[in-house]
């Protein structure tokens, strides 16, 4: 189960990571917009985990408790990207929430509420892995440009939270095979929306005029 999901997810991770690195990160509007979109969807992380955790039946108590623990670990993580934005001289409202950002977290709610709470496992697996795989490479690009004070989000999620991937993989290993379709759909949906999010950031940076916060 874990081997199958790892191979499926890794292909998506590699594709999206290439997309991440293709953006013009030397443009502060690109990095600022990225941080703002991160802020918008990370605000939903604990709520998505809560939505999934509340839907696991009593005989799946371990999954319920894992969601609750993870929610506690993710508490206030949106403040990291908020502070990075502040360091750059921006605030989240300088970059309106993109359609793909909304689709990213809204699709997670839908899959959890209408399909299966197991979708949280695939959703978390993709985002936690991407945060490390793409995050470490992106840090090498943006930290020399914007400094350590503007990369708190990337530093925490790429360097301090990799154990979350291990925790999700341990969870996957214990799941029955009939859960695979729910996990794969969550992974593929998150990957698609995240790639679209990056494309929308790129498009907006080429046309929109973003004003720095006062």
The overall number of domains is: 1
Biggest sheet character:
none
Under the CATH scheme, the architecture is: Up-down Bundle
What percent of the residues sit in helical stretches (DSSP H or I)? over 70%
Percent of residues in β-strands: under 5%
Summed up:
The protein is mainly alpha-helical and 214 residues long. The chain has helices at 2-21, 28-42, 45-53, 61-73, 78-88, 99-115, 119-146, 152-160, 163-173, 180-207. The protein starts with a helix and ends in a 7-residue tail after the last helix.
Polypeptide structure, described:
With 214 residues, the chain is mostly helical. It has one domain (2-204): Heme oxygenase-like (Heme Oxygenase, Chain A, Up-down Bundle). Helix content is 75%, strand content 0%. It has 10 helices and no strands. It has helices at 2-21, 28-42, 45-53, 61-73, 78-88, 99-115, 119-146, 152-160, 163-173, 180-207. The longest helix is centred in the middle third of the chain and has 28 residues, at 119-146. It is globular, with a radius of gyration of 17 Å. It starts with a helix and ends in a 7-residue tail after the last helix.
Keywords:
214 residues, mainly alpha, Heme Oxygenase, Chain A, globular
Question: What is the element layout, followed by pairings?
Answer:
Blueprint: H1 2-21, H2 28-42, H3 45-53, H4 61-73, H5 78-88, H6 99-115, H7 119-146, H8 152-160, H9 163-173, H10 180-207
Helix pairs in contact: 1-7, 1-10, 2-5, 2-6, 2-10, 3-4, 3-6, 5-8, 6-10, 7-8, 7-9, 7-10
């Amino acid at each position: 189960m874990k081997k199958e999901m790892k191979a499926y997810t890794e292909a998506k991770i590699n594709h999206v990571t290439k997309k991440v690195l293709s953006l013009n990160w030397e443009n502060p509007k690109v990095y600022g917009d990225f941080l703002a979109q991160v802020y918008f969807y990370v605000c939903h992380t604990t709520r998505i985990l809560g939505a999934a955790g509340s839907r696991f039946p009593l005989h799946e108590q371990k999954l319920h408790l894992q969601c609750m623990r993870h929610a506690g670990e993710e508490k206030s993580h949106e403040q990291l990207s908020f502070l990075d934005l502040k360091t750059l001289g921006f605030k989240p409202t300088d970059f309106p929430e993109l359609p793909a950002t909304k689709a990213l977290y809204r699709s997670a709610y839908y899959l959890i509420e209408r399909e299966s709470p197991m979708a949280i496992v695939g959703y978390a697996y993709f985002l936690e892995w991407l945060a490390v795989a793409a995050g470490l490479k992106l840090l090498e690009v943006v930290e020399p440009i914007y400094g350590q004070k503007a990369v708190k989000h990337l530093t925490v999620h790429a360097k301090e939270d990799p154990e979350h991937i291990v925790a999700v993989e341990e969870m996957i290993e214990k799941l029955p095979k009939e859960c695979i379709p729910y996990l794969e759909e969550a992974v593929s949906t998150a990957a698609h929306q995240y790639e679209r999010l990056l494309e929308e950031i790129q498009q907006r940076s080429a046309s929109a005029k973003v004003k720095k916060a006062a």
